[in-house]
Amino acid sequence: MKIVTWNCNGAFRRKFNFIDEFDADIYVIQECENPTETGHLDYIEWAQNYLWKGDSKHKGLGIFAREGISLELLDWTNIYEDNPLKYLLTCRVNSEFSLIAVWTHYNKSPTFGYIGQFWKYLQLHKSNFKNCLIVGDFNSNSIWDKPKRAWNHSEVVRELEEINITSLYHFEGNQTQGNEEHPTFFLQKNSTNLTISITFLVVQDSETT
């Protein structure tokens, strides 16, 4: 199964056809519109099998699957100490594995923005992180770790590795967190030398599953 993730930077209704060349089974798209509220007929037709969440119909987090693939929304709370987390969308794919789609957000939280949002989600659901893929835009890198902060990027990576979940990018490419050779973030078609979109997956006996 091929899974592609992309932060489309909005207006996905005008861009979705560009990613068809990847011929993926599942697309995890950040900053995309809710298809049913766009009025864009081609986009609606393309998005026949999807899950979506967001605060605005113009920009949210979507999981789009090929016809015949089952996406079962999982009832995992996004509320941490009465505060909603942004944005995490979790589903069961073909009753085989859990897919956790990620687009971390500032969420008006100077303390727990971006990676802090995912760290809170991890604390809520760590026991459920079994046979799962965590895919998306974390807006984070260990180069932005801060002293004495428990929810740094590096701490999240460490907590995931404790339950045998590791970054596919770093595992396959033999890359070091914070010293990546190949960026995943491009601004106006230009490389920024930042790696902030990552896929984490369960690793067993030193082989990916």
Automatic annotation (TrEMBL):
One GO MF term: exonuclease activity
Keywords on record: Endonuclease, Exonuclease, Hydrolase, Nuclease
Entry keyword annotation includes Nuclease: yes
Name of the protein described by the UniProt record: Endonuclease/Exonuclease/phosphatase family protein
Organism, scientific name: Algoriphagus aquimarinus
